[in-house]
Amino acid sequence: MTGAPASPEVSITVEELRALQRTGAPLTLLDVRWRQDRPEGLPEYLAGHIPGAVFVDLEYELSAPGRPAAEGPHPLPDPAAFQDSVRRWGIGPQDTVVVYDDLKNFSSARAWWLLRHAGLADVRVLDGSLRAWTQAGHALAEGFELPEATETQIRFGTMKTAAPDEIAALGPEAQLIDARSAQRFAGDGHIPGALNAPVTGNVDERGRLLPAAQLRQRYLELGVVPGVPLHCYCASGVHSTHAVLALSAAGFDPVLFPGGFGQWVHDGRHAIHVSPQREL
């Protein structure tokens, strides 16, 4: 990747995970199954998950339910509450943490981002998600995994975030990536000046993350300028974390707008660009 800065390791293949398991190195597996049409992933987890994986509830452990709607559909959890979750999941300070879902890691990226934001150094998504594990012929376990709790300390602040007013105050040189589908970008409207880069373009047909050089070329062709402030959003701060993951792998330094378009719209003070056919 000539001309690009060194990129962090954001993913791990099934083969690499199996090799890591054989070494006995500290490892935590997190199952983060969630999707918009079926937000409750626990039944699928109980029916079959990677042996040793702990279930993570995106709605209640990776978000802060009950917070005011003005904070967006999936507000970031309180640091103290998230620390309790990290400890309950059995994560040690030296662990490699591998997260996965069954949806090309578009939801498990939320766990990846939050754990990195909390200061954990080695967090990866399982490349190809759960499907890659089963397609490789590996067994699944049923039931509930309850690990031994830890005393890990966390501190939010490793990853960059922006609030609505900071997004509104961005100068003309700054760039915004809208990670939603093209249909929602055009039909529901978007933040003025945003570039549409659906997260589905970050993976191949098997749900595996594109190579770093290919990811970088994709974003360059979409108009991303290296070295210019770059911010990402989606509807609610879930899929946009996958955009942050992909951009990080590609050598960029993205900032997450966690409240997303949902918070932007609810605020009511900021402009929205709507395609002409939908203007009223």
Automatic annotation (TrEMBL):
SMART domains: RHOD (SM00450). One of its GO terms (molecular function) is thiosulfate-cyanide sulfurtransferase activity. CDD domains: TST_Repeat_1 (cd01448). Pfam families: Rhodanese (PF00581). Residues 23-142, 170-273 form the Rhodanese domain. InterPro entries: Rhodanese-like_dom (IPR001763), Rhodanese-like_dom_sf (IPR036873), Thiosulphate_STrfase_CS (IPR001307), TST/MPST-like (IPR045078). Keywords: Pyruvate, Repeat, Transferase. This is Thiosulfate/3-mercaptopyruvate sulfurtransferase. It comes from Nesterenkonia sandarakina.
